C-alpha cells in the first residue's frame, strides 16, 4: 500500500458508520483540501461541545485517538492506501489536542486552527518522521497527535505570557 495514494473514494463508503467517522462525516472528500476540511469539522465539534471538566475533555480526546487508530486503519485498508488524504479523523483529534485547556473564545479557536494546520502541513521534525515511519492506523494518527501536542504547547505558552 502506498502511503498517500490519491484514488477516488466511493461516496458509498459514507453509508458505513466507521468509514463515515474516519472520513470526517464526508469532509475528507473535499477536493484539494481534505485535511483542512476535516479540521473545520473538528472546530465545529469543539464549538458544539458543552463546557466540561478538563479530565472529561481529556478522556474524550484519548478515546477519540484510540478509536481513530482502528477507524483509520479500517478505512485505509478499504481504500488500499496506508494514509489516504480523505481520512481526516486524525485532523479532528489533532485539533482536539490543540484545544486542550484553551479558552473557548473565537480568537483562540482560530489560533488553534492556524497553528495545527500549519504544523500538520509543514510536518517539521519529528512530525515528518512519524508520518513516514509509523505504519497502520497508528501511523495515520500519530503525526497529527504530535502536531496537536506542539500546537497545544504553543497555545499554552501564549496563554501563560498573556
Average pLDDT, all residues: 93
> Helical residue percent?
55-70%
Structural class: mainly alpha
Q: Could you say which overall geometry the principal axes of the C-alpha atoms support?
A: globular
Contiguous uncertain segments of 5+ residues:
1-5
**Beta strand %:** under 5%
State the order of secondary-structure elements, H for helix, E for strand. HHHHHHH
Rg over CA atoms: 15 Å
Describe the largest sheet.
none
- Compute the number of helices: 7
Tally of individual domains: 1
Strand segment tally: 0
User: Between the first and last Cα atoms, what is the distance in angstroms?
Assistant: 47 Å
What does this molecule look like?
The chain has one domain. The protein contains 7 helices and no strands. Helix 3 packs antiparallel against helix 4 and helix 3 packs antiparallel against helix 7. The protein is globular.
In short:
Helix content is 66%, strand content 0%. The chain is mainly alpha-helical.
Topology:
Blueprint: H1 17-22, H2 34-48, H3 54-79, H4 89-98, H5 106-122, H6 127-133, H7 136-161
Helix pairs in contact: 2-4, 3-4, 3-7, 4-5, 4-7, 5-7, 6-7
Amino acid at each position: 500500500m502506498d502511503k498517500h495514494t490519491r484514488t477516488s473514494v466511493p461516496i458509498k463508503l459514507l453509508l458505513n458508520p466507521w468509514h463515515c467517522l474516519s472520513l470526517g462525516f464526508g469532509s475528507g472528500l473535499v477536493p484539494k483540501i481534505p485535511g483542512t476540511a476535516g479540521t473545520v469539522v473538528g472546530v465545529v465539534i469543539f464549538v458544539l461541545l458543552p463546557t466540561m471538566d478538563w479530565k472529561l475533555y481529556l478522556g474524550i480526546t484519548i478515546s477519540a485517538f484510540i478509536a481513530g487508530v482502528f477507524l483509520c486503519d479500517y478505512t485505509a485498508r478499504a481504500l488500499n492506501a496506508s494514509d489516504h488524504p480523505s481520512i481526516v479523523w486524525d485532523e479532528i483529534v489533532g485539533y482536539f489536542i490543540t484545544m486542550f485547556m484553551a479558552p473557548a473564545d473565537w480568537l483562540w479557536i482560530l489560533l488553534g486552527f492556524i497553528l495545527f494546520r500549519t504544523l500538520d502541513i509543514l510536518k517539521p521534525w519529528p512530525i515528518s518522521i512519524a508520518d513516514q515511519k509509523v505504519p497502520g492506523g497508528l501511523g495515520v494518527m500519530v503525526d497529527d497527535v504530535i502536531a496537536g501536542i506542539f500546537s497545544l504547547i504553543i497555545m499554552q505558552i501564549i496563554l501563560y505570557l498573556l
